[in-house]
Amino acid sequence: MKKFVLLLFLALSVPLIAQVEKTASVVMHNGKKCYAHIVGPGQTVYSITKAYGVKEHEAVLRSDIHHLAVGDTVWIPCTECELGSRQAAVGQQAGKKEYHFVKVEAGQTLYSLSRSYNVSIEDLNELNPELRTSGLKAGQTIKVPGPQPSGHQSQPAAGKPDVQSAAKSQPAVAKPGRQPVAYTPKPPAAPAEISPLKEPGRIHVSLLMPLHLADLDKISTTKFDVDQRGKKSYGAFEYIQFYEGIMLGMERLERMGARVVLNVVDISGKTRQDVLTAVNTHNVTHSDFIIALLPRETFDYAADWAQENRIFIVNPLSERDEIVEGNPYVIKYMSSVGGQVDELLRIMGKRPGKPHLYIVHSGSRNEARVRTIVEEKLKACGNIAYTFYDWSANSKMVSVLKKTPDCMVLNIYDQGRDKNRIQVSTLLNRMAALKGGATLVSLDNYINKYGDIDFAQLQQANYMTVNYELDHNDPSKKDFIDSFNSRYKIDPIDSYAMVGNDIILYFVYGLKTKGVDFWRSPNQSSVPGVLCPISFTQSDVGHGFLNNSAAFYKLSNLRFIPFSGKY
Question: Which of 502, 524, 196, 191 is nearest to 329 (CA)?
Fold first, then answer.
């Protein structure tokens, strides 16, 4: 009988294990050669990655790999293809183009190097193929296209170590006793020259965002694809609610008597030339200011162009404070690290018992700027006990935290998205052993960042973070939600609509009431319809403006509520 049951179980199990056959189809995806695998019945992330001999968290290039549907495409890096093509490309370029060697200093990035030596990031990656896999590290020696510039000392070719070997020998995480990477800010530029309004009585605004209008014909409305909506992503609709929030704000501005001309520019490409072509063909020079909802490097290209043309440019969603450095025309809307740390220390100062603050880090260059700011703020505060906890050098997290009950843990660990995700999951598992005896704090919202994170574990860790979600219990935000629903027949899904509404209202109202003098100090005590607090500061007249306002929210009953100061 037992044998029969076992055979029956095996027979029923066989159809559930789908065979995965590797495809021979190799395509370019996000600048990399990849296998384009079409998901078949019964196939899972595990079965697909196992068939191709890769790891789940590192290799499957898809934003939501945990909800695969039959017919979905999964792009898997073709490493053997890339090695051959990269080595050939580097060999050809080395034979045709002159280059010299440069030693990477702490705080330098590919973008800063490209600006310093007037070369493209693409050229740097092509001459140094290891950068695509290992990244850029302080102390590393790389090839830079062109002859040796005067004033720069090159590494001698004869004694130069192998670049790829040197990159691989760099430790991936900080080791015990290793000093964390220092942060070197960019020097300030010349002060901003403020131009008059382009047209008296009207304010011209250019909105730069990736609309992907050329891909509209790829959208399928078949019953199958409609049923799978939510599992498929269309770039054309990714930021549509940001645009809708701007339109809702413009309706309010019209009722207030402001006349606004909105110039919408689709920048779906990612190169410097894509940006230059778009802004030059859409008359962006005829703008009083620019709103640029663009990816990291694309925004940097747009910000350079705005600085050259003396037009202020607002970044709605970037978490990088360094985008304002060396460019007095950049305005960062999302709250700055300094403002967030100030607010956190204010909260801790009111907490009874003087809780101990642990700052979890790895010593990487990714987190160097944040660590520097946190350390400077803590030293200036002077009345809060704190410890910098090197995650990579210590493993006894629970025993350390148990010695200081009712402590707070600020996690600034940053080794790249995949490693960060694993670290956050491990940290939550370790904090679960404390049974609520500590408070976990992050400066970026883990729920927005990691879609599969455990809400229950976050709540057990008394999780707090800076949050821009719409609070239905806030009367002003509820009015916005109702207006948005009435206008578009759907509730705002995330913060995009609110941010779009705030930015267009705040900056147009400022120019309407103060004229171009508004740019000298873009602050106002009150703006009708703005939903989040805004307070801009400038560290130097040659840098841009940071929003130093911040509001922490605590996870309670599986939803964020504004932190009231009560524990």
Answer: 191
Average pLDDT over the chain, rounded to an integer: 79
Q: Is the pLDDT of residue 152 over 50?
A: no
CB burial class (10 A; 0-12, 13-18, 19+) of residue 546? buried
d(CA 91, CA 88): 5
What sections of 267-367 are H helices per DSSP?
Answer: 272-281, 296-308, 337-350
**pLDDT tens-digit readout, 530-541:** 988 899 999 999
pLDDT for the residue 382: 84
3-state secondary structure 329-358: CEEEEEECHHHHHHHHHHHHHHCCCCCCEE
Q: With contact defined as beta carbons under 8 Å apart, do 441 and 360 qualify?
A: no
Q: Residue 417 in contact with residue 388, Cβ under 8 Å?
A: no
Identify the three-state secondary structure at position 205.
strand
Distance CA(511)–CA(506), nearest Å, equals 9
User: The tokens 């940290």 sit on which residue?
Assistant: 427
> Is the distance from CB of 161 to CB of 141 less than 8 angstroms?
yes
Tens of pLDDT, residue by residue over 186-235, are 888 899 999 999 999 999 999 999 987 766 555 555 544 444 444 445 55
This prediction has a pTM of: 0.67
Number of residues in the chain: 567
73: closest CA among 48, 53, 97, 104?
A: 48
d(CA 225, CA 233): 11
Task: Using pLDDT thresholds of 50, 70 and 90, give the confidence band for residue 70.
Answer: low
Q: Please say whether the beta carbons of 42 and 19 come within 8 A.
A: no
* Structure-token match 């037992």, residue found: 2
Q: Write phi, then psi, for 224 (nearest 5 degrees).
A: -60, -45
Query: Are 106 and 140 contacting, i.e. CB atoms less than 8 angstroms apart?
Result: no
Closest CA to 109 of 140, 85, 86, 78: 140
Residue pair 404/348 in contact (Cβ under 8 Å)? The answer is no
Helix 337-350 and helix 368-381: axis angle, to 10°? 40
Residue 208 phi/psi, 5-degree rounding, is -105, 120
**Residue 220: predicted pLDDT:** 55
Q: Which of 12-16, 273-277, 451-455 has the highest mean pLDDT?
A: 273-277
**Can you give the pLDDT at residue 263?**
96
Q: Compute the C-alpha angle 229/235/238, nearest 5°.
A: 75
